[in-house]
Amino acid sequence: MADIIFEGLLQIVITPFHTDGTIDFRSVDRLTRSVLGEGASALTVLGVSSEAAYLDEEERR
User: Fold this and answer.
1) Is there a contact between 42 and 11 (Cβ–Cβ < 8 Å)?
2) pLDDT tens digit sequence for 2-44
3) Domain chopping of the chain, boundaries
4) CA–CA dist 9, 38 (Å, integer)
């Protein structure tokens, strides 16, 4: 397998939630566009210290 070399700004992003605990997809879209628009080369979502533990199986897909 070839090595993958990441270059540039690799931004870790949060997962915004509504008060009822569901994912706020509108805010996810806005945040993603903002971070990429500011020059990020790639995004890390649901990383080691993320909100993944709070998502149900369907939301993790």
Assistant:
1) yes
2) 888 888 888 888 888 999 989 999 999 999 999 999 999 988 8
3) 10-54
4) 10
Residue pair 10/45 in contact by the 8 Å Cβ criterion: no
Assess whether pLDDT exceeds 70 at residue 59: yes
Amino acid, res. 56 = D
The label of the residue with tokens 């909100």 reads 51
Asked whether the beta carbons of 35 and 11 are under 8 A apart, the reply is: yes
The predicted model scores a pTM of 0.65
**Residue listed under structure tokens 């998502």:** 55
**Amino acid making up residue 29:** D
- DSSP H/E element including 43: strand 42-44
